[in-house]
UniProtKB/TrEMBL annotation:
The protein's name: dTDP-4-amino-4,6-dideoxygalactose transaminase
Low complexity: bias regions: 339-356
Matching InterPro entries: PyrdxlP-dep_Trfase
Region listing for Disordered, in residue ranges: 333-356
Amino acid sequence: MTDRWECGSSFPLILPTGGTPTPLPEHRLYGSGRQALRALIEHGRREYGWTLLHVPAYYCPEVVESVVDLLPLRRYDATPVGPPPPPPPTRPGEVLLTVSYFGQAPTMPTTPAHVIVDATHDPVAEWAGGADFVFASLRKTLPLPDGGIVWSPTGRPLPPAAPPDPEHLATAGRALTAMALKSAYLAGESVDKSRYLELFGTAETGLRSRTVSDISDYSREALRVLPMAELRRRRTRNGARLATRLVGLPGVSVHAHTFGVLLEFTRPEPRDRVRHGLIQRDIYPAMLWTLPPETTPPRLLDLSRRLLYLHTDVRWSDEDMDRAAAALRELCRPPGEHAPSAPRPIAARTPAPARS
């Protein structure tokens, strides 16, 4: 049978078990993380009189675009690598959005402000206690076709629930179909890979809708049984193993996080060359994010062109992480240099405890 191994990219249809379902705080579910943020900002305008949204200059442009019609925006300096600059001061009526980059604790303001945390990269971490509201896209860390969540660590009233939108449910159905076809393809069945990739692309386009919807039935029920804390532990363990095997990678700083492994190249050109080489080897890294040049400070734009993210979630074993590491070492090896011996394994670090 043809080797259909891959690392990265979208989840296939799986429902991992092997742990206790993770209890969540009182929350509200929506069709996507972007929809959750829209519902939250509309709620803040009504209940708190929000008039301005501060957003990090280093942030997903699609998320920013999804709310640009709701409030005036002001970008502030922020970085996923190195010491974070302090958030800007805020005035009454303003709200500050901060981000957990790759699962790191977000930078919180020292001045009184309404604070929203984007916890997409680690929804079950413990660090969100000082925020007014937290939201996350669930399908980045969980095998779900759709889903966004909002909760308030400080006990503030949540935005109202949204009715199911037929167009959104159709989009979630396309994503679920793509996930099922991908599972069959990876299992060796006669499935046209281009078909499920097309469905994933169509679903991604549908999720850009600004209509706020309820989550799909499948994702709601799957969320009840998924052991989110255990999946986080396994993701973190895989990340620690991969990072250990990349120690000393020439021209690259390796950052292990609870979301995965972040590679920081010294220049954009090696990053692009390595990315294309990984894709040829069926390893699909992500660029988080491709930022707009017209609104991004040059320093952050340069950083965005040097970063590459590697998935380490529950889909992969120790051997898979070793295979990905070997591919990276080969691609980063200077021309003419012989392949070095693999480094001795180092015990994976113990992840921070998940929120109960």
